[in-house]
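ok trying again, last paste got cut off:
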Amino acid sequence: MTANETESLCPVCLRKIKAKRVSEADRVFLVKECADHGYFKTVIWCGEPSMGEWQRPKDVVHPNLAYGAVERGCPFDCGLCEAHEQLPCSVLLEVTDRCNLHCAVCFADSGRGKAEEPSLERISWLLERAIAAAGPSNIQLSGGEPTLRDDLPEIVEVARRTGYSFIQVNTNGLRLASDRDYGRRLADAGLSSVFLQFDGVDDTVYHSLRGRSLLDEKLRAVRNCGEAGLGVVLVPTLVKGVNTDSIGAVVRQGLGLAPTVRGIHFQPVSYFGRFPAERCDEGRFTLPELMRCLEEQTDGLVRVRDFSPPGTEHAHCSFHATYIHSAEGILRPIGAGQGGSCCSGNIGTGGVNKTIETVSRRWSLPSSALAFDRFLKSGKTVCCGEGSPDLARVEGVLDLDVFLQEAAVRSFTISAMAFQDVDNLDLERLRGCCISVISPDGSLVPFCAYNLTSRRGESLYRQRNGAKS
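nice, full thing came through this time. structure:
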């Protein structure tokens, strides 16, 4: 295949078909045709930075242990199979299908049908199986709404004993807002971070996406997490016409809640699970559009040039930037940004391990903070979050360890991930996915493949195997 040729699936029948990336003016489309269901064209990239320049070389890294034999080929043999080209940097385990909201947007389409929950014994088996294949990646406990399980602290303890050092819970925050003791129990059990649904800074957004007013409860959840010693990442699901005009306000809110809030992870809506509108290009919000909105809506506090392609998953899946910020609101980007430098080499196993460690460090809440604002005003920089001997000579910073401790407290990440659905699925991207779902049968399935549904509502993986006890 040429550089602009790839493979995809028919959005109707899920048959594997050829596809092309076609540029028209400043936009790139994925174009494909099924012999039975016709021609499909979906926008995948809009404007600057261009898709061509948003690249980062990577080495192929196969799973430690393949649970899937290659028979039909990608994406039908996930396990992960031996042909997958990246180790997982994060694995996701759904511990319940129950939920205390019925959101208009839900990747998992939670709360439908029979609620099934794996037992602690089954969870232990699933985690052992995942760590054997993927190594000690980061783990995210999800659902449904995982905090509906009273034994979630025990699940965290099981994950710790299995060998996971960074454990995150993906939550709407309602129980954390109402039950302080529950948050403390999670922290005591070894929870590292809270991945908090946080779509905007006014309740109009929450009524549209979640069906009710939620802002006060979200803010209370953040406060309670801070008191429990838990770092929080705010996670807005972005839907055009609903909350894409409040991106800058979310950034300012997040900075105002630091250091408890460690960063913001934006997720443009994808067309799987539940979503509030018909599939159309007008509803898609691509990564370069989001980068430009971040710069425009923060009045340049955050800039497009601050962002870098990812070090593990495919370059077109995400972006990230890490900053150090002062009490006065100064933001200093850490790392190379779009221009490259030490971060730009080929990424193999070492890159996966570095991503695991970096996420763990930056999304957890450090234990103390020491003043180092002189550094921020000195114009010095530090790449990739690693120290440089020059930093120890900045006036007022007497010890490199002290600097690094303070940098951990003052760091703030802004990132985004564009999940793929059946219309824009690019199998080249999928083969490089580093986020896997532990399915009920113990397979590891790339996140986008696991959640993929056809236009007729047929699931590629999610409904294939029921949960087991």
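cool. The first strand starts at residue 5 and ends at 9. Residues 1-469 form a domain with the TIM Barrel fold (CATH 3.20.20.70).
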